[in-house]
Predict the structure of Aminopeptidase FrvX.
Amino acid sequence: MAKKKPEAEQQAAVVNDASLAFFEKYINNPSPTGFEWKGQEIWLDYLKPYIDDHFVDNYGTAVGVINPQAEYKVVIEAHADEISWFVNYITNDGLIYVIRNGGSDHQIAPSKRVNIHTDKGIVKAVFGWPAIHTRLGGEKEEAPTLKNIFLDCGCTSKDEVEALGIHVGCVITYEDEFMVLNNRYYVGRALDNRAGGFMIAEVARLLKQNNVTLPFGLYIVNAVQEEIGLRGAEMIAHRIKPNVAIVTDVTHDTGTPMINKITQGDLACGKGPVISYAPAVQNNLNKLLIESAQKAGIPFQRQASSRSTGTDTDAFAYSNDGVPSALISLPLRYMHTTVEMIHKDDVDNVIRLIYESLLNIKNGQDFRYIK
């Protein structure tokens, strides 16, 4: 069993000013799927004082390790990538059409400012959209679709666009930045799921600052390419071959308009971490999370998933002949928009829940039902 300091001391050390400054920098930095390395550098620089070793795989998944010599391996994991766009077609008059990189929402695109990432640096552009005056002509009004949204970077020809370094395949990210709303919510793009990367880094910080000695190897994993099919987690699970995996991602706050609680469940920001029930979630490990929350007085909510969690939990669970895996989710409003919102208390409590759960995992623990 890990040695720990008194409960009051642990709870005082959650998100502080220095870690919040890192969080803001990390969120504001673009980290699109397949191009995550700048964000991973920022994340690793923050994490290094709290770990014994680290490595990065061929596709950019970053891993910090505590007790790398230990045979029994526990993973805590989040994903680093954000949704984005690719340049797909440049017209002769200098406009740019796009395709998705991940689950980008075409309906929020019109009038958004973006950064086009080129070998020559960032090129600014906007998603243009016809003025309302020109759309009200008695005909049926067109809604935004992938066929009619386009970028305008101020050029009037294809040659002029290409002279800026823009070509088919350049990645595009929104430029919206981090803010705190009503001293209660963190708001920004890509909180799905760089909030997770932040929280697992904070767990490592608390372990170090509280002088906790874990009896197993801890692998703090910030995986790439989740938004296109859990690919980074799939790769790193086979490399690490963990004995246990605790994954954190976001889930929907279902209390906002146009969401059906009958199908999506009843979950809300500010009411605590969400513990999931799904085929990929190992029941005995899940019980350990619940007991850890109850023992530490951490509020939590519950969510059921029909077939899969849709998170990196699935990739870890079904790797290496089956890895006991569980999911702790952070409630979030307005997923896959530039104004994703998470509650400050939930962030603190996800960090605390992962931390307390690690303290309750025994070295060599076997989570099977029948042994």
